[in-house]
Structures are given as C-alpha cells and as structure tokens.
Design goal:
The protein is an alpha/beta fold. Helices cover 45% and strands 21% of the residues. The protein has nine helices and twelve strands. It is globular. The model has no long low-confidence stretch (mean pLDDT 92).
C-alpha cells in the first residue's frame, strides 16, 4: 500500500512543493510511498525554529535530556523488527542487518542518555591569588546532520543522539534513497516532550537543500558522512562562515592477516567484512 508523508519543520509535519517516489530496490513493483521534499523557505523556517528552541532545551537540564533520549532509544530497540523491515525494504540490505541496525541505533540513544547525566567540567586554581578557573561544556547551538543511505538510521543516530544530549538543536537532511526510515525515526523523536523546533527533518536534493544548509550563517555546526568530493564541497561552503565541521568521508579499512592467524576464522571475518551490507559501507575491509 502506498503512503504519502511529509517533512517535519517547527514541530509540524508539512508537505513540500515536490515529492520523490520510494521503490524497493529488490522489487521495483513495490512502491513504498511518496515523500515530500523541503523547500528553501522551509529550511529557513526550520533554522529559525531551532534557534528559538535550542536555549529552552539547554535550560531543561540534564535529567530531562536523559529521559527523552532514553525514551527514543528504548522505543527503537522495542521496534527493531518493524523498523528493520522498513530499512530492508527501501535500502535493500538483508532483514537481519536491518533489524540489527535499528537495535544498535537504539543503543546509541540510550548510551548518550546516560552520558547526558555525566556532563562534567573542571575547576582549577589560578596562579593569581583569589582567582579560580572554571572549564565548562556548553552546547554548540544548531547542528545540521547530513547522512548517507547505507546506514539510514544508525549513522544519523550517532550524530543526532550526542547533539541532543549536549543541548543542541538539530536539522537532519537524510539521503533521498531512504526516506521511509528517516520518517520512522523522526516520528519517534517528534512524540517526545521537547521544545517546538528543536528537531527538524528537511529532506531534499543536496544541490538545493543541502547547499542552503551548509551556506547558512545561522548554523553552528555540520556533521557529514559521505563521499570525499561532497565533503570537500561542504567544507568550501561552510568555511566562509567558520562553521564547525565534523566529516567522515570515503574511508576504507585494511585487514591484516598475520602468519599465526587462524585462517578459517580469518577467511570468515574477511568475507563478513567485505560483503556485509552488500559491501556498500565504509567499514568494509
């Protein structure tokens, strides 16, 4: 059955001016749904809403942030089978990997929920009498998350969870190849007791929506996983505003098998590493 859904901006599900069709790569007759594409105006609306929401979220305190992240993670783990089927259907990975990815994403959220309670600083003495030095950790502000299609929930989770745990607002631009899983995660986050505009889902083409995000002087940080050429383009655009960047681009992992290795075990792990996720992952050996 087809479904039509939108994007999430300023605490509301919205429609875009255009939409994309999402088909199962394993069965092209299977139309998963039609998914809205954000407009530049909606991106600007999301940024404005995030700017208002972020200080409210920081002021809510560490217990509140812990509780919200714990609820997100717990629901993801409880619904790993259901959402894993969505991932498998739209991304093409085996069902077991889809389930495992969702469960792992839930663990990311619960781990950072605990980290929110361990927010620490330092207080040291100065060489000047009567003066103390305090080091504290404050939120960056508004974080744009740009994530790939090969791990459509796990990769965003390890970006979104720490951003929220440490008091930031988030704008998430997922890959257009996997919109259904992005909506599933957003639905869980949107149901939480968080300030309006704290979390926004702004899907769209990189040349339009992505470019608007990375060029915005209102953004405080960008976290990106993807190709080297796209990462270079993001860095070139963001540096104009001195936006903080965290980039994971085009990595590949060597596997070294020593003379004393258990060859049967080494071959099994080499095959699992190289061909898991159909080999379409930066962690493949």
């Amino acid at each position: 059955m087809e479904q039509q859904t939108g994007l999430y901006v300023a605490g509301q599900w919205q429609r875009g001016e255009t939409e994309i069709e999402n088909r199962n790569p394993s069965d092209l007759a299977d139309v998963i749904g039609h998914y809205a594409q954000a407009t530049v105006a909606q991106v600007d609306q999301a940024i404005a809403a995030a700017r208002k929401a972020q200080p409210l979220w920081w002021a809510a305190g560490i217990q509140k942030r812990h509780d919200v992240l714990m609820a997100i993670g717990t629901e993801l783990m409880a619904r790993a089978d259901e959402i894993g089927r969505i991932i498998s259907r739209e991304e093409g990975k085996p069902l077991a990997e889809g389930r495992g990815e969702v469960y792992r994403a839930g663990q990311f959220f619960t781990w950072f929920a605990a980290e929110a309670l361990r927010l620490a600083g330092e207080r040291v003495e100065s060489v000047r009498p009567g003066i103390g030095i305090e080091v504290r950790r404050d939120p960056v502000g508004i974080v744009a998350v740009i994530s790939p299609w090969n791990f459509p929930i796990a990769t965003p989770a390890w970006k979104i969870a720490p951003a929220l745990a440490y008091g930031n607002a988030v704008l998430w631009k997922p890959a257009n190849l996997t919109p259904a899983s992005a909506v599933a995660l957003t639905e869980i986050i949107a149901r939480q007791d968080i300030p309006v505009g704290l979390f926004n889902l702004v899907p769209g083409a990189g040349r339009d929506i992505g470019q608007r995000l990375i060029e915005s002087p209102a953004l405080d940080a960008i976290t990106f996983t993807g190709s080297v050429p796209v990462g270079r383009a993001i860095a070139a655009s963001a540096i104009v505003n001195m936006t903080k960047l965290q980039m994971e681009m085009g990595s590949k992992n060597p596997m070294v098998i020593m003379d004393d290795a258990d060859l049967d075990l080494a071959v099994a792990h080499a095959c699992n590493s190289a061909f898991g996720g159909t080999g379409q992952k930066c962690t493949a050996a």
